[in-house]
Hints:
This protein is an alpha/beta fold. The protein has helices at about 5-20, 75-80, 85-95, 110-115, 120-125, 135-140, 250-255, 275-280, 310-320, and strands at about 35, 45-50, 55-60, 60-65, 105, 130-135, 150-155, 170, 175-180, 215-225, 230-235, 260-265, 285-290, 325, 335. The strands form two sheets. An eight-stranded mixed sheet has the order 1-15-2-3-4-5-6-7. Strands 8-9-10-11-12-13-14 form a seven-stranded mixed sheet, with no helix packed on it.
Amino acid sequence: MTVRLRAVALAAALFAQLALGGCLRATGPGVSGLIRSDGPRSEPLRVVYLGSGGWILEHAGATVLTGPLFTNPGFFTTGLLPIRSDSATVDRYMSRYDVSSALAILVGHAHYDHLMDVPRVAKRHAPTARIVGSRTVAYTLGTWSGLVDRVDVVDDSAGDQRTVGRWLHYGDDVRVMPLRSFHAPHFDGYTLYRGARAEPLTEEPTWATEWLDGETYAFLIDFMAGPDSIAFRVYYQDAVAPPPAGFAPEALIEERPVDVALIVPATFDQVDWHPEALVENLQPGRVVLGHWEDFFSPVDRPAESVRLTDLGHFERRLERVFDGEWWRPDRWTELVLR
């Protein structure tokens, strides 16, 4: 059996599990529209949820994106047929927001639901943004995307719980530190589309199985109020990780805890102590849940929670260890945080 056929067989097993797992899609309280949080009269942090792993983070005119997915190929299409980014759909939804001055697009891993729409966003909507990710992210974009000169590979810059990594600076107002993380299994200990690329692709991937995850990273993002002053510290992950993978350096958190943690509930039950251990590590002031919805459904339909994940259980566990403000936003929700 070829590598592709084995991957398709594994994907088919997942789809069977997903089809049987709809009954687990319990949901807790969510928010939509415009949400304003009280606080001192200072320049706020604007957070917009784009769905899947996509966010817009903006403070005082400095904008950072994280890898969005608007195409949302369907359930059976993803498992059995070729997929590709739908430029018209990307343009329709990304055009709602002016991200033309975005400094960076953060990509935690190279699965299709985090990277496939990034080339269109980077070329059409955020034409000067750097793409920040692993060597596999860079090699997957390869030569076909025309973005080879805009990718910042982070493999040698990353920190972890014990090690302070290297800050990557984007202008005077933003710095980013990659954090060594891991992609939790999708089901029963299996992680789909696992692997790393050893050389750049010359053609766009055709199948979901060709979007290999590669090395996985979370990120600390500091929006600066001056050379030595942090206005907001944001944590971003785009995949659940087993502790202590994805942890921020303890030395940095002792100096300044995270103001806003963007964390993932999907497949949380495939690892131990998520979100409890991450909350303890980050000591966040606020928590926002992302990548919680079923991304096989078109973005113009009401979002339902991702299959095979008991979202209500995750939220109850979060509330047991975190007594601050937290939200699970629908797509297009805008939070203005002071």
